[in-house]
Amino acid sequence: MENIRKTEKVICMILEDINSDFSKELVKSVANAISENKQIRLVVLPVKYDYGIEDNCLHKYREIYNNILRFSEICSIDGLIIHLGSVSERGKNSNGIFDDFLKRLSGIPKVLVASDLKDAVTVNYNNESGIREAIEFIANIEGLTKICMLGGRDDNKDARDRKEIFIKCLHDYRLEYSEDQFENTDMSEDSVEAADRLLDRNPDAEAVFCINDAVAKGLYTTLKARGKVIGRDVMVFGFDNTRMSSDLDPPLSSVGADSSSLGGKALELLLSMINGEEAESGTVPTRLYGRASLPYEMYEYNPIELSKAEPAFIYKMFNDCFYRYKLESIDREKVDLRRLFYEFMSKMLIACKHTYMDEETFGKLCMMIDKFFEKGAMQYTDSTKLTTSIEKIQNIMNKNAHSLAATVFINRLFARMKDRAIVNQSKELISHERKTNRVRQRIKEFIVSGMDKTGCCGLYRNFDRLGLDNALLFIFEKPIVHDRDKETVLPKNILLKCMMHMGDLYLMPEERQKFRVEDIFGCNKLTMKCKGFVSFPVICGKRLFGLLMCELTDDICENGEFIAMELGRSLALSEQ
Amino acid sequence: MFTWNFRYASKARLADTFQQLMLDPKNGDILIRIHTAIHLEDEAVELARYISQLIPEAHIFGTSTSATICWGKLIQNQCIISVTQMSKGTIRTAMLPTFEENGLPVTSDDLCMAVKDAVISDDTKLMLTFMTRKYLGVYNFVEKSNKFFPGVQMIGGLANTSEVSLKKFLDSGFVFNEKGWSNRAIIVAAISGAEVESFSSYATGVQALGQEREITDTFCSCILSLDGKDAAREYRLGIGDELTDRPELTNLFPYVYSDVSDIPIFVRFSENQSLNDIFDSSEPIIDKLQKKYPEKDYNIKRERICANHNVTVGKKLRRAFIYDRKVIADNRSLFRRIENFEKAETLFGYSCIARSMIYSNCVKWELSAYENSNMCGCITEGEIAHVNGRNTFANCSFVVSVIGEAPATQEYNPYAFSHTDSLIADNREMLNYLYDIENKLNANEAFSAADSLKAFVRDCELKMLYSDTEELPNAAALSMDIKLKGYDRICMINVFETYAMSSVFPKAIIDLTYKNYITKCMSYAKQKGYKVYHIKDWNLAIGAPSYMYALPDFVRDMEKLQRDLFETSEDYIAIVPLFSVLDGCTIENIEQAVHSARLTMSSKNIQFCVRDASSDMLDEESIRERYHMVNVINYAINHDKVIPYFQGIHDNKTHTVHHYESLMRLEDENGKIYYPGSFLDVARSYGLLYDSLSKTMITKVFDRFKDITDKCVSINIGMRDIKNREIVDYIYDFLTTVKHPENFIFEILENEDIDDYDTLVAFVDKIHDLGGQISIDDFGSGFSNLKHIASIHCDYLKIDGSIVRNSTKDEQCANLIELIAGWKRLSKHKMRIIAEFVENQEIQDLLMEYNIDYSQGYLFSKPCPEI
C-alpha cells in the first residue's frame, strides 16, 4: 500500500541586515501570519549588504558571513521569501553576489519583497498612495511650499520609486522642485551628514520626506542641532511606519501599510505558489500615520457616531487607536484585544448615552482596562497617538454628557486608560533595557566560564549561559576556510552539538550528533513551539564553524549576530 | 373498587369490552368516564346513550378534551373510556346548568347549593368536576365549595377541544352524558363511601417573583388596572415588547394569587381590543354589567389582559415564571405523596393545555412516572386543584387524585425522574427569551422600558441559572455566557467513579470531600476572575472569555488547580479530577468537544487535556472532499469501476515473477484513477462502503485467477474483513472449490489494530486447512507484537516499505532487515521474506546480501491492470 507522507513546509526567509527596523518588522509580520497555520516552519537567514569595496575588513567579514546563503542552496526548502535591496531589474546585469544565487534557487517557489524584478513574483508597497496623502496634507491644509527629501541608494528600487513619486506629487500640487531639494543617503541612521548637506542647501525647508524611518532619525539629530522644532518649524515624515518611529521625540509621522502587511502578503502569495497555483505580484496599499512630527489625523471622530455606540464604530475606533493590530494576524490563543476593547468601550458609550453607570459596572470596567493594557495593547500603538485619540473621544463625550455621576465615572475610566498606557509603555522600555543588559552579562559569563575549561566541550556545556531559550548549535566536523576566489562547498554532514529546549540544555551524545546538512531546517528536533527560527553563521576570521539556529524573538534580531560571533571566537580560542 | 381504561375503537368492540369486564351493577355503582378528543357534541351524546343501553345503571360522565391520558400516557386524537366499579361506596353524577333561563350565569352560591343537593352526601370524599369556559365564575365557585361542602376534595377543570388559540380563550368545550350535551353546564361525579379514601395534589413548576400588586379595576375576566396603573401595559413592560410578536410568552409568565403562590393564573394579552370586542354584549350578563358600570368606556381599543375566569378587585397578584427545575421539584414532591398513599386503587390525572404548549415534553415527562398505573384523565384548559386542604381553581397545573376503598398498589416508575434531559431541552424556549432580553438590555434597546423588566429578568435568571444544590451558576448559565458574553474558553472538571466511594466510605466523609472539592474550585476561580458553573454532581465547569484571558494563562491556572485538588490530607478521600480545557467553544460544538476530550483522556489514561473545540468540526473543504470521495466510491461500486492492479513480486533466486500482489484502484466518471490512500479512510469510516469494496475486489481477483494454474496472487485482507462472516465464508467456499488453492495468498495488515487474535488465528488456520497461504503485510510498521506474529504461522512476511526504502541511508533500517533475515534462519517454520518499495539497485544489492527471498518495487515493475 502506498504511504502518503505529510510533513511541515519549510519556508526560508532571506533578508539583508536583520537588525534594521524594517527587517525586524518584516520578519515579525511573516511570523505572525504563520502562527495560525502550524504546518509551516519559518527559517530566517540574514545576510549582509555588501558594498563591494576592495580590501575592507568589513567587506571581508560580510563576504564570509554571506556564506550562510550556501545553506539555503543545500537544505530542503519549500519556499523562499527574499528581501534584498540590490536584487532589482536595474542591478540584473551587474553580477552582484545575489544574482548567481537566485539562479541556483530557481526551482523553488519564491516571492521577492520590495523588488521590481520583472520575471519574479514580487510584493511591494504601493508607495504612491501614502506619499500623496502626506504631500496633499502638507500642501493643502498646512499651505507649505518648500518640501525636501532625503532619498536612498540608487541601487534600491524603492528609493528610486519614492523619489519619482515625490517629484510627481510636488508637481501635481504646483510646488517647486529642483535637484537641490534632494540628497542621497545610505538608508540607515547614519544620515546626519546627508541631512546637513540638504539643510545647508535648503535653510528654508518647511517639510522633509525621509526615504525611511531610520533616515529620519539622522535628520532629527541635525534639526535639533540647528535649533529647529520638529513639527513646528520643520515637518518630517518617514516611510515604513516602524515601531521605532513612535519612540522618537517627537514621534515621527510615517507612511505605512494600510490593510495588510508586506510580510503577510508575501506569505500569502508564496503559499499559493507552493500549492501549485498561479500567483501574481501584489502591492500593499499604504497611508500616512500622523504623529507629532506632522500633525495629521487619520480619522475624525464625530459626536453622532459616538452617541450611537454601534459595534462597527467601536471597532473602527479600535483600529484607529491600535493601528498595528489589524496588520498583525493575532494568535487565536492570545487575548482578543479587539473584543475586549469593544466590551469596555461599548459599556462606557452606553453609560454616557443613558447618563448612568453603576458602581459594579465601573469596577468591572476598571478591571477590563487593566487587563487590556496588561495583555500588551501598547504593542499595537504608541502612547501619544493613544492619548490624543482618547482625549478626543473624551471631549466629545463630556460635551454630550448630561449626568454628573456617569461623567465622573467615565472620565475616571479614561484617565485610567491613559495612565495604564503610559505606565505599560515605560515598563516595556525599562524591561527592554534590562534585558539587553542581562544578555550582555550572560555572554560575559559565557566567555569567562568557557575559558576555564579546555576544548570545545566546556563551551557546549555552557551553552545555556547565552540566555537563549530555544536554540540549536550545529558545528561542522572541520571548520570551513573561506577562499575568496573559490566557491565555498559545504560538507554533507554537520553535527548537532547541543540544544536548548524550553530553557533546558541538552548535550547530544556522539552517536546522535550527525545530521545531513540538507535536513537541518526540517529536522524534528525543532518541534518546539516556536514562531520560527533565525540562523546565524558561527564564524571567526576566515573560518566558518557552523550554524546557530535560534528561536525567533524580538531580541534575537538584535543580539543574535553578536552571540554567534562570540561563539565563533570562543570556538577559535578553544582550538588553540 | 376496580378501574379499567381503554380506548374507544368501535361500538362492537365497546360491547365486547364491557362483557369481558363482566360489569354488574349489583356488585356496586359504576362510573363510566368518557374523555373524547374526536367526537362532535351530538356524536358524543350518541356514544353515551349507547353505553347506557349496554349498562343502564352506569353513571356516565363525559367531557370533550384536546388530548387524553390513558394508563398514564398522553394520547392524542382518541376517545378514552374509563370504567370504575365501586365495591361498597356510591357514585352520584349530575349535569347541572350554569346559566339561568334568562341567560344570566347562576351565582356561585346557588351553583354550590345545586351541586350539594344533587350529589354530595356526608361521606363524599372526592368530586370530579368539569365545567365549560362560558361560566366565568368558576374561580368563585371552587372557592365557595370549600364552605358549602368542606372536606370534599375536587379534581377536574374546564373542558376544551382540539381547537387552541394563543391569543384568545376559546370556549368550544362541552360536557355531556346520555341525556345530552351542554357548553353551559357543570358535570360532577361524587364518589362517596365510609371506606373510600382519597388524596389529591398538584404540581405546577411555577416560581413567584417580586412584589405583591393589587387588582384595582376589572371587568369580568379582564384585569384593567393593577395598583392603579394600566394592567396590560405593566404586563407588557415587564415581559418586554416581544410579547406582541410572541403571544406564547404569556404561557411562560403567568400571575399567581399571592395567597397560594404556586398556583398560576394565566392571562391572555391582546394588543388592540375594546371591551366590546372581548365580551359579547348580547350575552345577558355582559349587558347587565355594562349597565351596572356605565362609566367604563367599552369601545376604546387598547392592549388588554384577560384571565380565564372572573377576577375581583382587591385580590393580590404576584408575577411568576415557569422553569424546568421547579417543574422537576414540584413533580418529585407530588409523586412522593401519591406513591405513599395506601388505598391506591384508581388514579385520576388532569393536565393543562398551556403546560404542553410551552413545555412540549413536560406533560409526557411528568406522566412517565405513572406510565404503568391506571391513571386516566385528559388535558383541560384550567384545573381544579386541591391545595393544602382547600379546593382552588388553577391554570397550568398537573392535578392528580388517588382514591380507593381498600389498600392496593400501583406500578409506578420513579426512575422517570432521573431522565430530565427532555425537560431541559424544553427550557430552550425560556432561555431563548432570556437571551433575547439580555441582548436587548446589553444593546440598551429596551432601556426605555421599565426597570421592572430588568429586575424581573434578573430574578428569572437567578432562579433559572443557579444550581439548586450549590450556590453556583448551572449549565444553563454556562450556555448563556457562551452565547452572550463570549465565554469561549471552558475547562470541564469531573470526578468519575464517585459511586465507588460510597461503597467504602461513610456518607459524611464523602460529603466533606465534595464540599472541599467545590470550595477549592470556587475560591481558586474567584481569585483568578474566572466563573465556575455547577453542571451536575461532581461535574464543574470553569469559564473564561478569550478577550480577557490568554489560553496559555488559562491552561496554567487550570493545571495549578488540578495540582491543588490532588493534594489531599487525611481528612478527605483522594479524588482524581479530570480536566479538559476547551478553546473556541460555541453552543453548537461544546458537547462534541467535551465528548471527544473524554474519549481521548480515557483512551490515553491522562487527566488533563487541552483541545480546540472548533477542530472537531471539519472545515468546509474537507467535508466537501469527503463527500466527493463517497460519491467516487459509490460510483465505482455501482459502475464496475473497482479495478484490481497487479504488481509482480520478483524472486531473487530464479529472477522471475514469483507471484502478483493485487492492489485496489477506483476509477471515476472522468477516468481518473484513485489510490487507496485517498479513499480507504473514507470507506472505512463508512463501514459498509468498505465491505462492498473488499467484497468486489476479492471477487474480481478470484475470478481473474481461478482458472490460471501457474500464477499466484496475493490479496490484502483487513481485520474488518476477517470479522465479516459474509466475506470469510465466500473465501472459504472459493478455496474449497478452486483447483489450486495454494495459488492464493492472503496478506494481513500487521499495523491495523488487531484486537481479536483468536479470530485471526482461526482464520489463518482455516486458510491453511483449505490450502491457501498467508502473508503478513507491513511488518515492522506498527508496534509489532513479535509473540503474536510468531504464533501465526505465516508463509510470507513482508517488510514494511519505509524500512526498505531507507535501508541504504539509515543504518538502523538495514539492521532491522538483517534482524528479520536472521529470524527467518533461526525459525524452523518455513517462512519467506518479501521486501517492498525496492526502488533502486542499491537497495536490491543490500537485500541480496541478506538473502531476502523476494523483492517488489518500481525497480522491477509498476502496478498495472494487466498481469
Characterize the structure shown.
The complex is a heterodimer of chains A (576) and B (867). Chain A is an alpha/beta fold. Chain A has three domains: 188 residues, no CATH class; 163 residues, Response regulator (Rossmann fold, 3-Layer(aba) Sandwich); 128 residues, no CATH class. Chain A has 18 helices and 18 strands. In chain A, the strands form two sheets. In chain A, strands 1, 2, 3, 4, 5, 11, 13, 14, 15, 16, 17 and 18 form a twelve-stranded mixed beta sheet that branches. Chain A has a six-stranded mixed beta sheet with strand order 7-6-8-9-10-12. In chain A, helix 5 runs parallel beside helix 6 and helix 14 runs parallel beside helix 16. Chain A starts with 8 loop residues before the first strand and ends with a helix. Chain B is an alpha+beta fold and 867 residues long. Chain B has four domains: 298 residues, no CATH class; 116 residues, no CATH class; 152 residues, Alpha-Beta Plaits, CATH 3.30.70.270; 230 residues, TIM Barrel (Alpha-Beta Barrel), CATH 3.20.20. Chain B has 28 helices and 40 strands. In chain B, strands 14, 15, 16, 17, 18, 19, 20 and 21 form an eight-stranded antiparallel beta sheet that branches. In chain B, strands 32-33-35-36-37-38-39-40 form an eight-stranded mixed beta barrel, surrounded by four helices. In chain B, a hairpin with a 2-residue loop joins strand 4 and strand 5. In chain B, 44% of the residues are buried. The model of chain B has no long low-confidence stretch (mean pLDDT 86). Chains A and B meet through helix 13 and helix 14 of A and loops of B. Chain B: It comes from Ruminococcus albus. Chain B: GO terms for molecular function: cyclic-guanylate-specific phosphodiesterase activity. Chain B: This is EAL domain, c-di-GMP-specific phosphodiesterase class I (Or its enzymatically inactive variant). Chain B: InterPro entries: Cyclic-di-GMP_PDE-like, EAL_dom, EAL_sf, FIST_domain_N. Chain A: Keywords: DNA-binding, Transcription, Transcription regulation.
